[in-house]
Amino acid sequence: MTRTITYACLSILLVTSIILRPDEAFQASLQGLTVWWNIVFPGLLPFLALLELMLTFGAVHALGALLHPLMRRLFRLPGESGIAMALGWTGGFPLGAEAVAALRRSKSVTVAEGQRLLSLSHMPSPLFMLLVVGSGFLHRPELGAAIAAAVWISAVLTSFITAHFSSASAPAPTRGDNKEQPAPTSVLRRAAAAMQAASKRDGRTFGKALGDAVVVSVYKLMAIGGFMIFAAVLVRLLQPLMPERIPAFLLPAFLESHIGVYAAATTKFAGGVPWTAACAAAVLSWSGLSALLQAGSMLADTGLSLARLAAARLVQSLLAFFITLLAWKPAGKLLQYIIPSSAPTFSQTEKTGAATAASIRAGDLHSLWPYTPVLLIGFLFAVSVLITLSAAIAGTSGRHISR
């Protein structure tokens, strides 16, 4: 009851603010719509449809059999979790949460496994970090690569921490964890059998499955766009109320990651470029309240906790911030040694002063529409790498047991 009353009061306050300040609310909604259309829509649409088709025809279950040795050894997760990880790391928020929710509904992962997988798969788009943040916001592509590396490393560290030190991290007794690893031929047979069984259970034709995939994907994208526009309007309406002693980028960073990372990238920090990159990595690792709510809408009826995901994002955000600062000088010296012409890349600049507004300029926002094929190729490459590593681990385990 208390939560319902709180949400109702907040909704009334928001509507009242929009009525009193319609121009600012309209401009903010256009900003959120622009980010959604240029960044989120092209980045998520093909992957959402692909996930539906993979689930329909059993490709997820087949790949799960191939990836089981790797995911169980590293993260104490079933093989199907590798698909959610690959989708989340290539497609961006909230594709990883959607993939985990689909695996949870099909009972491919337990609640404990799904919770850990959720924190590992809820990731920002790599092209957004490299192209939009690095080349567009910061005008330095190498900074986008450094930020992406910090986000990825902090995500893996967070997953290792939760997998090996959490009381809920014990591996499930099923799935044959203590059994001898099968030979490569038997693994392929198991993958084919799992794919055939899953496809038979679904029973839809390709045309029906494709139509359903497109409809469901567009519906989910519309909901994601609504969350983003809502967060953008909140940022614009609440900014004048923020105390001056609080950095201006914190509010947009808390509410919406795309707007928040732009605000962090255009803020003049006393620490210079290292602090700019560290704050940008922290904002992207946190993902913003908007992306968390998007993930929460997809986790309905799965038993997974949005609060635990938010806690994991907070831990990853702190790790990404400190990893960026600690690795800044060593990374700069390494690049200077490898590529002397890039010596100024990681140097500090005269960026000091107050924060700037969090209004994204159209010229700084690269559209991801031309890069959709690159995202799909990246997903295929990621899955191929995971399968190769999994086969290597399975082969090593088999030789060890034979001895």
UniProtKB/TrEMBL annotation:
Looking at the keywords, is Transmembrane present? yes
**UniProt cross-references to InterPro entries, sorted A to Z:** Gate_dom
Which keywords belong to this entry?
Answer: Membrane, Transmembrane, Transmembrane helix
Domain Nucleoside transporter/FeoB GTPase Gate positions: 40-135
Source organism's superkingdom?
Answer: Bacteria
For this UniProt entry, which segments traverse the membrane? 43-67, 79-97, 117-138, 145-165, 218-237, 273-293, 305-328, 374-394
Q: What is this protein called?
A: Sporulation integral membrane protein YlbJ
Per the UniProt entry, what species is this protein from, by scientific name?
Paenibacillus taihuensis
